[in-house]
Amino acid sequence: MSHELHLLNQQIKTQSVSPPPSMEEHTAPQSTSSTPPPVLKSGKPKRIACVECRQQKSRCDAHEKHPGPCTRCIKKGLKCDLKSDYKRTYKRARIAEIEKEFTELKKSLSSSQAADLISKIPSLAQHLCQEFTSHFHISNMKGADNRFSLNSSETNNSIPNTPSIYRQIDQPLSQNYHYASTAEKTILPEYVLHCEQKSIDVITLSSETIRALYIEYVEHFHPILPVVDVSKGPERLYKLCPALFWVIMFVSLRRFSEDSHHKLLLELSPIVKGILAEIMISPITRYNPTEEDEPILNASSVFSVQAFLLYSFWPPVTSSLSADSSYTTVGTALFQAIRIGLHTPASISDGQQKTPQQLFMAHESAKTWIICNIVSQTIATSFGFPAFVQFDSSIWNSIRPGSNISIPRSIQLMMEIAHFGDQVAKTLNSNTLDPYALVDPTERLPLLKLLQRRLDEIEIRMSHDLPSDDGFRRFQLLSARVHLLTYYFMDSSRIADFELQRGLVNLYNAAMSLINLAQLFQEKDRKFVKYLPGVYVLNIWQSACIIGKLIHSPLKKIVDTGSGKQSYLAAISLAAKASILKHDMAHRSSGIMRNMWQVFRQLDDKKMSSLSINIRTRMSASVFFDCLYLLRDQVGMTKLSNESQKVGNGGSQKSTPGSSTSSRTRKQRSLSNTVNAESKARKIIRTIPLDPQPIS
Question: In this protein, which residues make up the domain named Zn(2)-C6 fungal-type (predicted)?
Answer without folding.
Answer: 49-82
